[in-house]
Amino acid sequence: MTDTGVILRAQSGFFWVQTADAVLRCRLRGRLKKDRQSSDIAVIGDQVDVEPTSPNEGAITHVHPRQSSFSRQQPGPRGQWREDVLIANLDQVVLVMACANPDWNARMLDRFLMIAEHNQIAALIVANKTDLLAPAQVAAMVQPYEQIGYPVFATCTPTGAGIASLREHLAGRVSVFTGMSGVGKSSLLNALQPGLQLATGAVSATLNKGRHTTVVAELHALPDLGGGYVADTPGIRELAAWRIPDADVAWCFREMRPFLGQCEFNNCLHTHEPNCAIQAAVATGEISPTRYESYVRILEKQERSG
Ligand SMILES: Nc1nc2c(ncn2[C@@H]2O[C@H](COP(=O)(O)OP(=O)(O)O)[C@@H](O)[C@H]2O)c(=O)[nH]1
Ligand SMILES: [Mg+2]
Ligand SMILES: [Zn+2]
C-alpha cells in the first residue's frame, strides 16, 4: 500500500513525511539513490510516495517532479557553479525585518530580495515591531519596496496588528520565513498559528547555538489557516555566503530590469561605466539610491571574496 505525503524535515538520511493521517520517519528506497546526487534526491517540501513499513516508519519509493525550488548557488571547482536545493515546491519567501531592535537593515533586505528573485520565488516583506517606531518612520522605510511592487506587511506581535492580513497570504501556500535573529520570526509564526509554540527570544538563541542546521530547518503544517506550510529558519549564516554570478545581479533588482540592455557596453555592470542606463536612472530618481547602493555593495563584496 502506497501513500503520498510531504517531507517536513530531513536529517542524517531520515525524512519525516506528513501523510494524510500520520508523520512517518522514512528512508529512501535503495534504487532511488542511484538516480541523482544524493543530497538533491529529496528535500523538505518534496511530494513523495511512501510505503509504510511499521506504524511510524516507511520507505520513500518515489519523489514527484518539483514545481519550484529554492537553492543556494556556490562557486565550485573549475569556475562552475554548484546548486544546493534547500526546499522544494516553495511558493514564497517572507523576509522579516524589525523596525528596531535589531535595527532595520536595508542592505540585508536587498540581499535577501536578490536571492528570492534569482530563485524566481515571490517575496513578501514583513516590517515587525512597529510599536518601536513612529508610523511615519515605518512608512518611509517600506515605501521604496511598495513602490517596486513587493507586498509589505507592518506587524506587531504583542498587539496582533497586521497578523490577519499576513495570515491571508500564507493560507494554502508553502512559505519560508527568513531574517536576522531577534527580528521576531518565531513570535510571528506563533501569532499566526498559536498551536506552533515555537521557542522565542533567548531560549531559541541557545537552542540554535552549535547546531549544524541548514538554512531551512523544518516545515510546519498550518491547519488553522486551512492549509499551507511554513518553515522557520534558524539563522542566516548560510545566506550570507550566498553568491550569484555578477552579471546576473542587476536582473535580481527588479526595478533595474526595464533598463537592462540599454547601456553602451553590453557587459556593463553599472558601477562606473560611461553611458550606463542604470546609473542614469539612479540620477533621475527612477531607481532608489539606497537600493542602488545595495547593488554596488553586493558586487564589491563578491569581488573581495574571490
Ligand atoms: N517590541 C516588540 N518585540 C517583539 C515583537 N515581536 C517579537 N518581539 C520580541 O523580539 C524577541 C525576538 O523574537 P523571536 O521571535 O525569538 O525572533 P527570531 O529570532 O526572529 O525568531 C523576543 O523577545 C520577542 O518577544 C514586536 O512586534 N514588538
Ligand atoms: Mg526564532
Ligand atoms: Zn550599465
Which terms would index this structure?
single chain; 306 residues; alpha/beta; OB fold (Dihydrolipoamide Acetyltransferase, E2P); Rossmann fold; Ribonucleotide Reductase Protein R1, domain 1; 3 domains; 6-stranded mixed sheet; 5-stranded mixed barrel; 11 helices; 13 strands; globular; binds guanosine-5'-diphosphate; binds magnesium ion; binds zinc ion
Account of the 3D structure:
With 306 residues, this protein is of the alpha/beta class. The protein folds into 3 domains: 3-63, OB fold (Dihydrolipoamide Acetyltransferase, E2P) (Beta Barrel), CATH 2.40.50; 86-240, 3-Layer(aba) Sandwich (Rossmann fold), CATH 3.40.50.300; 246-304, Probable gtpase engc, domain 3 (Ribonucleotide Reductase Protein R1, domain 1). The chain is 29% helix and 26% strand. The protein has a 6-stranded mixed β-sheet with strand order 10-9-8-11-13-12, with helices on both faces. A 5-stranded mixed barrel has the order 1-2-3-5-4. Helix 3 (106-118) packs across helix 11. The longest helix has 16 residues, at 289-304. The structure holds guanosine-5'-diphosphate, magnesium ion (MG) and zinc ion (ZN). The site of magnesium ion has 4 residues, from helix 6.
